[in-house]
C-alpha cells in the first residue's frame, strides 16, 4: 500500500471514530414514560442512556444479592436485544460507564425502596436490599422500548430516558391469589403468573390449594388427598396436583423474583376433597362423593374428632416445611355447615397448630369470630366490613381484598364471557378508583398491611382465561398497593394503562380490551389479531 493511501485510510478511520464517539444521545423525557406503578418521585433531565452490545452490568464485590439481580437483568434483556451483557464485580460500580447495581448501607431506603439515576454515561440503581434492586430492574424494563418483551432479536436502539427516580412502596403486602383448586393449573402456568405479577412489583402469591373440588398439594402422610381428592375439578374433567418437589420449584421460582408464596388450606368448610378421600374425617365415618359443581358452604370437617386435629397437624407440618415465608393461610370462609361455637373453637385450635410449626396464621376475615393472636392477619373479602372490624378490634392487621373492588373473578360487565358477578361487575375503573385505607370506616392505614386481588377459579380453565380476567385490572391493584395517593388518579392512570398495549401484545397477554381505556395503537395490532384468530 502506498503512503498516501495509508494516510487517507488512517484519516478516514479517525474521522469515523470521532463521529462515532460524538454520536449525540437522543433527547428523551423521563416524565413522559408511562410507568405502572407510578413511582414516588421523578425528575427528568431530557437526555438518554444508550444500552448497547458493549454495555456491562457492574456489581460490588462480595454482594451476592446484587449479583443475583444483575443476572436476572442480563437474562431478561438477552432474547430481544441479542446482547449477552457481562456481569462484572468491581470495587466502585458507580464509577463505571454502564449499568451499576449497588446495595447501599443507606437505611433511608427501606427494604423494597430503590433509587435509579440515569445519565448519558451510566445507569446507577441503588437499594438497601436485593428486593429494592429487583423492583428497580422492573422500572428499567418498563423504560426500555416495549419490544424488550419479545423473545426474538429486535433492532435497537435500546435507550432509557435520563433522570432520577426515587421510589418505595406505600404498602408492604401487594399480592394476587390464584385458585388452583376449582380448576387445576400446572407449574408452568403458575410460573407465568408469577412473572406477570412480578413485572408490576407485586410481592405475594397466595395459592388457594384446597377446596371442595380438589386437593392440589401432595401430603406424604395422607396420600389419598391428592390421588383421590385431586383427581377431578369443576366440570368433572381430570384434575391434578403438585408433588412436594414441584411445589418447591414454584416457591423457589417466586423467591428468585422476591415474591413470597402463601399457601392456603381452606378449612373447616370447603373441605369436600379431603372428606371424599378419608372416611375418618367425616362425622359418620363415610367418605363423601367427589364434587365437581360450584356451590359453596356445604362441607365441614368434624370439629369434635381428635383425628381431625392430627390430620391438620400433619398437613400444616408438611406444608410449613415447604414454606420459607412466615404465613400459612387456613381459609375459614363460608363454613356454613359448621356450628358457630364449633367454628370458634376450631379456629382457636388451628391457630395454635400453625404457631406450633413456627408460622403465623392468615384467615379470611370470618375467622375474627375466634380469638385471634395479634400476629395473625385477617383478609377482608366481603363487601361489608363487620368481620374485618372484629379483627381490627383484636389488634389484628388486615389484607384488603373487598370483592366488589378487588376480585379478579368478577365479570367486567354483563357480557363478559368469564367470571361471576355475585359482588357486582368490576370494570377497570371500578377496580382502580378506590382507596385501600378509606374503603371501610374503622379500617385505616395503620390497620392494613396491604392489598390482594384474588382470582377464584370456577369459570377459568386455561392460561388465556386467567389472563383475560387478570389483565388489565392487575396493574391497577399493583399501583394501589405501591404508589402514594398523591400519585394516583384515574385520568392519568387510564392513559398510562393504554400505553401498555404494545407491551401486553409483545408479552402475549390475552388481555381484555376494555372500552374505558384509550389503547395506544401501534404495530402490535398484528400480533394481537394473530392470537385472536388462533
Ligand atoms: C367466595 S371469597 C368464596 C370462594 C368463591 C368466590 C367466588 C371467599 C373467601 N370465598 O369460595 O370461589 O366467592 O367469587
Which features characterize this protein?
534 residues; alpha/beta; 8-stranded parallel β-barrel; 7-stranded mixed beta sheet; 17 helices; 17 strands; 18% strand; binds ligand TNX
Estimate percent helicity.
25-40%
Mind telling me the C-alpha Rg? 26 Å
Q: Into which percentage range does the β-strand content fall? A: 15-25%
Summarize the biggest pleated sheet. 8 strands, parallel, barrel
Query: What is the β-strand count?
Result: 17
The global form is elongated
What are the distinct ligands in this entry?
Answer: ligand TNX
Strand order of the largest sheet: 8-9-12-13-14-15-16-17
Arithmetic mean of pLDDT: 95
Low-confidence stretches: 524-529
First and last CA, distance: 61 Å
Structural class: alpha/beta
Number of helical regions: 17
Explain this structure.
It is a single chain. The protein is of the alpha/beta class and about 525 residues long. Helices cover about 35% and strands about 20% of the residues. The chain has 17 helices and 17 strands. The protein has helices spanning about 5-20, 65-80, 130-145, 185-200, 225, 245-255, 270-275, 305-320, 340-355, 385-395, 405, 430, 465-470, 475-480, 490-500, 500-505, 525-534, and strands at about 40-50, 55-60, 85-90, 100-105, 115-120, 120-125, 160-165, 175-180, 205-210, 210, 215, 260-265, 325-330, 360-365, 375-380, 395-400, 450-455. Strands 8-9-12-13-14-15-16-17 form an 8-stranded parallel β-barrel, surrounded by 7 helices. It has a 7-stranded mixed sheet with strand order 1-7-5-6-4-2-3. The chain is elongated, with a radius of gyration of 26 Å. Ligand TNX binds near residues 296, 334, 409 and 420. Ligand TNX binds near residues 296, 334 and 420.
Amino acid at each position: 500500500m502506498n503512503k498516501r493511501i495509508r494516510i487517507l485510510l488512517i484519516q478516514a478511520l479517525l474521522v469515523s471514530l470521532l463521529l462515532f464517539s460524538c454520536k449525540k444521545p437522543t433527547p428523551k423525557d423521563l416524565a413522559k414514560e408511562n410507568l405502572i406503578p407510578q413511582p414516588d418521585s421523578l425528575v427528568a433531565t431530557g437526555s438518554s442512556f444508550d444500552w448497547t452490545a458493549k454495555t456491562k452490568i457492574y456489581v460490588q464485590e462480595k454482594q451476592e444479592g446484587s449479583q443475583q439481580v444483575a443476572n436476572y437483568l442480563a437474562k431478561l434483556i438477552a432474547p430481544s436485544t441479542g446482547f449477552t451483557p457481562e456481569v462484572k464485580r468491581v470495587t466502585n460500580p458507580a464509577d463505571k460507564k454502564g449499568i451499576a447495581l449497588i446495595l447501599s448501607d443507606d437505611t433511608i431506603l427501606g427494604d423494597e425502596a430503590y433509587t435509579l439515576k440515569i445519565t448519558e454515561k451510566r445507569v446507577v440503581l441503588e437499594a438497601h436490599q436485593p428486593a429494592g434492586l429487583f423492583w428497580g430492574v422492573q422500572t428499567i424494563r418498563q423504560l426500555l422500548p416495549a419490544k424488550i418483551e419479545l423473545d426474538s432479536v429486535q433492532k435497537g436502539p435500546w435507550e432509557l430516558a435520563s433522570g432520577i427516580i426515587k421510589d418505595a412502596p406505600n404498602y408492604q403486602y401487594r399480592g394476587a391469589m390464584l385458585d388452583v383448586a376449582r380448576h387445576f393449573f400446572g407449574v408452568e402456568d403458575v410460573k407465568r403468573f408469577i412473572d406477570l405479577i412480578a413485572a408490576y412489583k407485586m410481592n405475594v402469591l397466595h395459592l388457594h390449594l384446597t377446596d371442595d373440588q380438589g386437593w392440589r398439594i401432595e401430603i406424604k402422610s395422607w396420600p389419598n388427598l391428592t390421588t383421590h381428592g385431586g383427581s377431578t375439578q369443576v366440570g368433572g374433567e381430570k384434575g391434578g396436583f403438585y408433588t412436594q418437589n414441584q411445589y418447591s420449584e414454584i416457591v423457589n421460582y417466586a423467591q428468585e423474583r422476591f415474591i413470597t408464596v402463601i399457601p392456603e388450606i381452606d378449612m373447616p368448610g370447603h373441605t369436600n376433597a379431603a372428606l371424599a378421600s378419608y372416611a375418618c374425617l367425616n362425622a359418620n365415618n363415610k367418605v363423601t362423593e367427589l364434587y365437581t359443581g360450584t356451590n359453596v358452604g356445604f362441607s365441614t370437617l368434624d370439629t369434635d374428632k381428635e383425628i381431625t386435629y392430627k390430620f391438620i397437624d400433619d398437613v400444616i407440618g408438611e406444608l410449613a416445611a415447604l414454606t420459607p415465608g412466615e404465613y400459612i393461610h387456613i381459609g375459614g370462609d363460608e363454613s356454613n355447615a359448621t356450628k358457630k361455637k364449633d367454628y370458634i373453637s376450631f379456629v382457636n385450635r388451628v391457630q395454635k397448630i400453625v404457631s406450633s410449626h413456627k408460622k403465623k396464621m392468615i384467615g379470611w376475615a370470618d375467622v375474627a369470630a375466634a380469638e385471634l393472636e395479634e400476629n395473625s392477619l385477617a383478609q377482608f373479602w366481603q363487601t361489608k366490613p363487620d368481620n374485618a372490624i372484629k379483627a381490627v378490634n383484636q389488634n389484628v392487621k388486615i389484607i384488603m381484598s373487598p370483592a366488589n373492588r378487588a376480585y379478579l373473578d368478577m365479570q367486567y360487565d354483563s357480557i363478559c364471557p368469564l367470571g361471576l358477578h355475585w359482588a357486582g361487575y368490576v370494570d377497570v375503573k371500578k377496580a382502580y378508583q378506590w382507596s385501600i385505607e378509606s374503603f371501610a370506616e374503622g379500617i385505616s392505614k395503620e390497620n392494613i398491611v396491604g392489598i390482594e386481588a384474588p382470582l377464584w377459579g370456577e369459570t377459568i380453565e386455561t392460561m388465556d382465561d386467567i389472563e383475560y380476567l387478570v389483565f388489565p385490572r392487575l396493574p391497577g391493584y399493583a399501583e394501589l398497593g405501591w404508589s402514594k395517593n398523591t400519585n394516583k388518579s384515574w385520568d392519568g392512570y387510564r392513559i398510562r394503562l393504554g400505553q401498555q398495549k404494545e407491551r401486553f401484545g409483545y408479552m402475549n397477554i390475552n388481555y381484555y380490551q376494555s372500552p374505558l381505556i384509550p389503547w395506544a395503537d401501534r404495530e402490535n395490532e398484528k400480533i394481537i389479531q394473530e392470537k385472536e384468530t388462533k
